[in-house]
Structures are given as C-alpha cells and as structure tokens.
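Example (one chain per record):
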Amino acid sequence: SKGLYLLFLMAHHLIGARAAWACARSCPPGCVCTPERRCSVLCDRAGLAHVPADFPCEAAAINLDKNNIRFLSERAFGTLPSLRSLSLNHNNISFITPGAFKGLPGLTELRMAHNEYIRYLHMRTFTALRRLAKLDLADCNLFNIPDRIFVELPALQELFCFQNNFRRIPGAIRGMENLTHVYLERNRIEAVAYNSLQGLTKLKYLNLQDNRINVIHERAFQGCQKMEYLYLNDNLLGELPENSFDGLRCLKMLNLGGNFLRNISNTWFRDLVELEVLYLDRNRISYIEEGAFENLTSLVVLHLNSNNLTTLPFSVFQPVYFLGRLYLFRNPWECDCRIEWLKEWMESYRLVRDIPCASPSSVAGIDLMDVLYDRSPDGFCLDPVELNVTSYSPAPSGEPLSTTESKFNSLISKLLLQVGLSEDVANTTELFSNTTLPDGLTDGVSSGAGEHGSQVVASLPLNMIIFTAVILQSK
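Predicted structure:
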C-alpha cells in the first residue's frame, strides 16, 4: 500500500507539472499565465485593444481588466471548456456580438462592470452560459435590457446592475427562481410595481437605494418570502401601502432611511418577526402609531435619528422586547413628562444616548440624561417650566414689564436652601429644576452645579445673597 501511495504522489506531481507547462505553453503575448487556481491568465493593464486570439485550453480564469477593448466578436474567446471566471471590467466595450461567449460552457462568473459605452445588449448576448451564477454589469450606462435576455441563464444567482440608467426594475429578472442577490442601487428607478419581483422565490438580498422611487405598489414584495436584506433608503417615498412588507417573515434588515415619510403605520411591520435592524432615519417622521413595533420581537437596532419627533410615548415601545440600541439624536425633543420613561431607560440600559432637548426653554440644549423632573405631593411627574424672560405691557407708554418674578423667586429659594435656612422660609418661593441662574453671579452657581456651587453660596453672608439677588432682579 505504501508503494501505491508513492505512485499516486508521483502521478499527481507529473499531472500538476504537465498542467503548469500546458498553461504557460500558449500564454498570449503581454499576459502572465500561472498554474495557481488551476490555470489563471492575467492580461490586466496590458494595453490590449482586442481580445487575444489564443488562450491556453486549460484556462480556468481570465482577467482582461483595464485594457482598451472595444468590441467582442462571436466566439471571442474560442473554446475554453475549463474556464470558470472571465473579467472584462474597466474597458471601452461598446458592442457585444450575440454569441460572443459561446464556447465557454463552464463559465460561472462574468464581470463587465465600468464599461461606460455599453448602452444596449442584444437578447442573445449571454446565450449558452447555462452555468453562469454571477453577472456584473455595474456602471455600464444601460438604460434597459431585453425582458428575455436571461432566459438561457437558469443558474444565475447574483446580478449586479447598480449605477446604470434604469427607470424601472428590469423585467428580465422576473421568474428567475435561482436569483438570490440583486443590486440595483444608484439608478433612476421610479417605482416598485406589483409584478416587478414576481417569481423571485429565493431572493435574499435586494438593493434599491439611491433611486427615485416614489411609489411602492401593494404587496410588491409578496413573492419574496426568503428576503433577508432590503434597501429602500435615499429615495422619494412619502408614504407606503398598509401591507407593504407582508409576507417578509425572514427579513433581518430593512432600510427606509433618507425618504420623506411623515408617519409610521402600525401595519407596516406586522409580519417582520425576524427583523433585527430597522432604519427610519433622515425622514420627516413626527408621529408613530401605537403598536407600530409590537411584533418586532427580534429587533436589536432601531434608527430614528434625524426626524421631526418631539415625543416618544412609552406605549409605542411597551409591547416590544427591545434590548438593543436606539438612535434618537437630531430630533426636536420636547423633554416633558411623556419621555421621562426614556430617561429611566437610558439610565438603566445605557443603550441610548445623545438626546438634546429642544423644549421647554428651561431645559433647551440640555441632554435628556441631565434633566431633573420634579414631583407633585402625590408623586406625579411635573413638566419642566417654560420660561418667559420679558414681555411688553399693552399700556401706551410701551415700557417693558418685567415678568421675571418666578425666576427671581426661584433664585432666592435656591440660595436660601443652599445656605441652610429653615424649610418654612425656603418654601415661600417656588423651586424649578433645570434652570440656570442669570449671568453675573459667581461662576458655577446653577441648578445641578454640584458641591462646588453649594460651598460658594454657603460662604456668602445672607445679606450679601439677598442684595445680589435684588440687584439681579433690577437688571
């Protein structure tokens, strides 16, 4: 048995040596042929104006990237039964003769991206490529492709057509039951019709971002029940049908960011029980219906930043077992008692941060984490106050009438409390949280200033404190 094993090793070595010799024997001028990965022919950046006439019969991969090839004739590559990968990226191809890829029965990957002069493809461009699984036509200036162009590509799984000029989802993909990935971002697509994705039963990934989509028909995705990743961000969507995503029970990521959505319906996401990441950022959302997220029991990341949200009632999230990150920055938050629950959540889980308040004025600019909510004698939350610094009297004189009495009283109360006066005296004025003392008082003396501020005030004589406050009132 040892002898047989040695014979096997010798035979294997001889076959490898013969294959390496055969690969290099007929290498085209200007190219490099290497036995790595069976037989690879590297002709990239070789200054070629035409496809070389002869390739090694054993060639498994050919790279013709970044040349000046303009034309592909019929059977342009001869007969190469072992060829699996062919790359023609970054050339100047303007015309492909029908049948150009005949003679390549084993081809599984074809790359023709970044050929800006390809504006048209004949229906029989890819004839005979029955094993082709990956086709890259990105950035080729295509306006459309024939509806039956892929009819002879039953094995096609991945289609790259991003950065072209399509105004609709190519009808050629309908019924391509083995397609798993479709890249159509950065085109000019205006709608997702009810039949645009018909028959794509194995589709897992669909990228439609950065188009001009303003309409999605009802049940447009109903045939894509294996979908896991759906990108609809950076389009022109102002509204969606109630049943937009019905049936997408395998969806893990949905991106609706960068659109014009104003409200979130409680019907959109009802079937998305496996959804883990949801982008709703960079819209105009001001209202979220109660129960909108109630079925999203797998959600771990939710992006609501850069919208017009002023509040976020607890009832919106209450049914959700949400344990992940919540992004809420760049919204005009009204930090009243309606979002006190959110502050408590921030403190408990440390998964939410950067929520600056826009109102009331007493807390404007303060992060929600730093807002202090007062309580009524019954223990109910009290909203932070809305400050009005000055107003004008309706009297003919037009003299400004000071309305800083509440602010002045709050100031006296705070100062008296911090020097340790009796509770009866201190309670003669009203104390408001989250207000900063007027400019001109000792630095650091403000609500929430900490021990340093208390020590400064405590060191001042009582008459000096009252005198200072009176001076501030008179300003």
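Caption: The first helix runs from residue 2 to 25.
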